[in-house]
Amino acid sequence: MNYIKTTLLSALIGLLPIATASAQGEKMLREKNPEFFKSAEARRVGDQLLIWQRNTGGWPKNIDMVTPLTDAQRQQVLADKQVTDDSTIDNGATTMQMTFLARLWQQTKDERYREAFNKGVRYLLSGQYENGGWPQFWPTMRNYQIHITYNDDAMVNTLIILREILKDREPFKDLSDAELDKQIEKAYNKGIDCILNTQIKVGDTLTVWCQQHDHTTLAPAKARSYELPSFCSMESASIVRFLMNLPNPDERVRKAIHSAMAWFDKHKITGYRLERIGKKGEPGADTRLVADEKAGPLWARFYDLETCQPYVCDRDGVPRKHLWEIGPERRNGYSWYNDRAEQLFEKYEKWKNKWENKKK
After folding, report:
1. pLDDT at 134 over 60
2. Is 20 within 8 Å of 64 (Cβ atoms)?
3. Distance of alpha carbon 97 from its chain centroid, rounded?
4. Is the pTM of this model over 0.90?
5. In whole angstroms, what is the distance from residue 351 CA to residue 1 CA?
6. What span, in angstroms and rounded, lies between the C-alpha atoms of 198 and 239?
7. Residue 79 belongs to what H/E stretch?
8. Which residues are registered as beta bridge partners of 93?
9. In DSSP terms, which residues pair with 338 in a beta bridge?
10. pLDDT tens track for 49-84
11. Could you tell me where the beta strands, DSSP code E, fall in the chain?
12. Inter-residue contact 14 to 97 (CB < 8 Å)
């Protein structure tokens, strides 16, 4: 029985349903202060994360794992440990819990936290396709979950934690061993190959990436009804940042970065700023593009694969040119425009000077 069904059943029989994740709870799971991890509160949260870890080695997403569980809730979560369809790397799940446990182990040396962390590593390794990509959920998947997933930085987050483990950096120092490192290094290198192999090519020109790619053909793929195959700026910016941080980029990596940055430069939107009015979900809330000559560049999240024109999309799956053409639920409930690529240009100039001069 999956989590949603279990939660509904709990409500019917009078148990208190487990809350969804809160900003405060996620902030605690992302805590970095070593002093906090010496506290009883950190151990309490860590022990609760052990309960939430599925037998797969992964964790579900968007659930409050910080608030103390009632006895009934604890029994519910323990009964669900065998569930196989909600372990995921989406929305920071699994890598976030692993990092918390790594920090906790560094301060306590409690082997339970190390064992749970390494079980998480093995979960990450188990999900990788032979072509180097990772799906959104595994081992049991539904519909688009089977695709190679860059959406919400799922695959990039996975590669980053594998990189940090390999480099033996805090908070992952001494958590791995030589045998596991070999497996991690192989998976990490295959992941980079997958990124390079999925970069969308138009004619002879490399561009950027889609949010998700077919796990077999590597072609851009559809996810939810409003997430169509497209050039996707937001996740592509994170991919390029990851590639720029590679220590010895070969010619193929350098070409991928140059090509993506050229695409970003060509397709930026100028003269507009994104304006959010009111509070999300409340009457009168709205999101709109407003003309502003002083505004910095923006990028649409999605660009059409044929015309390369920016678009937005409602749950009917029909792409439209303007935000006002889609309903308020999707207009205000999704990130249609972003400036993530703008932050890359200064980094790109430094990266280019370093590696192109070294190449000469």
Report:
1. yes
2. yes
3. 14
4. yes
5. 49
6. 11
7. helix 71-79
8. none
9. 299
10. 999 999 999 999 999 999 999 999 999 999 999 999
11. 148-149, 201-202, 205-206, 212-213, 231-232, 272-277, 286-291, 299-300, 302-303, 310-313, 319-320, 337-338
12. no
pLDDT at 140 over 90: yes
Residue pair 337/312 in contact by the 8 Å Cβ criterion: no
Q: Show the CA angle centred on residue 135, arms to residues 129 and 137, nearest 5°.
A: 125
Tokens of 47: 């022990």
Pair of tokens at residue 13: 């029989």
Q: 276 - beta bridge partners?
A: 287
Please give the span between the terminal C-alpha atoms of the chain, in angstroms, as a whole number: 60
Per-residue pLDDT reduced to its tens digit, 226-264: 999 999 999 999 999 999 999 999 999 999 999 999 999
- Tokens representing 53 are 């870890």
Question: Does residue 275 or residue 24 have the better pLDDT?
Answer: 275
Tokens of 70: 């009632």
337 three-state secondary structure: strand
Contact 326, 313 (CB under 8 A): yes
Burial class of residue 356, CB neighbours in 10 A (0-12, 13-18, 19+): exposed
Contact in structure between 29 and 96 (CB atoms under 8 Å): yes
| Cα–chain center distance at 242 | 13
Residue type, 338: N
Which amino acid would we find at residue 306? E
The SS3 of residue 130 is coil
Distance of CA 274 to the CA centre of its chain: 23
The closest alpha carbon to 60, from 76, 80, 35, 37, belongs to: 80
| Pair 341, 299: CB distance under 8 Å | yes
- DSSP letter, residue 323: G
Residues 218, 220, 222, CA angle at the centre, nearest 5°? 120
Residue 310 has pLDDT above 70, yes or no: yes
